[in-house]
Design a protein that fits this description.
By secondary structure, this protein is an alpha/beta fold. It contains 13 helices and 7 strands. About 45% of the residues lie in helices and about 15% in strands. It has a 7-stranded parallel β-sheet with strand order 3-2-4-1-5-6-7, sandwiched between helices. β5, α9 and β6 form a beta-alpha-beta unit. The chain binds adenosine-5'-triphosphate and magnesium ion. Adenosine-5'-triphosphate binds next to α1, β6 and α11.
Length: about 260
């Protein structure tokens, strides 16, 4: 059975997509079968996995509207295959922005993705869902099917404030829609140990959330930021970089974590 994780934080630009694609590539690299679902109309995770969002015939949008199955709509990237870090991609593009409105009148609208994932459950060890920077119907679809939420965050002052809203949303979804749901962990990203405030916030996080804070820390690393323009996760683009190595370590930490779930 696949373990399903949402990468979510309603704050924009905190590293959700970077986390999703690099964790997917890292897990593939250590032999896990992975499906990456792009739930963001920006389609950054799709492009960052080497799939051109403008060329897609079917996307997660068709799956949400029950016009296609995941088996029909998923794709693979040749570049990732060549690098030996291949994972399946259920892509997204601008069309997905319309889904929010089109789904308003549909039944079971927040459970569409869950139903679709059940059909491919046996084919994967991990399903990773890249959520948009909002607590919208799209994010809700992700949270409804997930076993856990991975929350990437920068160790800055306002990061803790935003976390309260996310924690409350997750509690509500757990109470009303998905009893399985939990925060599997907070991932410190874009970390710079030379900045005193970041170390302080990191300590506060550990004091507050204990073992919910992942051991792995993702450093600020320019190679991770450069990789998407080549249509590659950093783990594939420059495997020797500090950022790539941190994400492979994170993949191994996730493999350990799911053993105790
Ligand atoms: P959005 O909310 O728009 O979906 P996001 O949370 O998915 O954004 P990303 O797109 O992953 O965030 O990252 C935001 C920017 O920060 C990108 O330009 C990305 O390349 C850069 N970035 C992410 N992680 C790192 C890192 N560890 N080191 C350096 N740059 C990073
Ligand atoms: Mg993103």
């Amino acid at each position: 059975m696949a373990k399903i994780f949402c990468v979510a934080n309603q704050k924009g630009g905190v590293g959700k997509t970077t986390t999703t694609v690099n964790l997917a590539a890292g897990l593939a690299k250590v032999g896990q079968r992975v499906l990456m679902v792009d739930l963001d109309p920006q389609g950054n995770a799709t492009m960052g996995s080497g799939v051109d969002k403008r060329q897609l015939e079917m996307t997660v949008y068709d799956v949400l509207l029950e016009e296609a199955t995941i088996t029909q709509a998923r794709s693979r990237s040749d570049k990732l295959q060549q690098a030996g870090c291949s994972y399946d991609i259920l892509g997204a593009n601008r069309e997905l922005a319309g889904a929010e409105v089109e789904m308003v009148s549909l039944e079971r609208r927040e459970r569409r993705l869950k139903a679709a994932l059940q059909a491919v459950d046996g084919e994967y060890d991990f399903v990773l869902i890249d959520c948009p920077p909002s607590l919208s119907m799209l994010t809700l679809n992700g949270l409804c099917c997930a076993h856990g939420v991975i929350v990437p965050m920068q160790c800055e002052y306002f990061a803790l404030e935003g976390l309260t809203d996310l924690v409350n949303t997750i509690k509500q979804v757990k109470a009303n829609l998905n009893d399985d749901l939990q925060i599997i962990g907070l991932l410190r990203v874009m970390f710079d140990p030379r900045i005193t405030l970041q170390n302080q916030v990191s300590e506060q996080l550990k004091a507050h959330f204990g073992d919910k804070v992942f051991d792995t820390v993702i450093p600020r690393n320019v190679r991770l930021a450069e990789a998407p323009s080549y249509g590659l996760p950093g783990v594939v683009f420059d495997p020797a970089s500090r950022g790539a190595q941190a994400f492979v370590a994170f993949a191994l930490e996730m493999v350990q974590r799911i053993k105790s779930m």
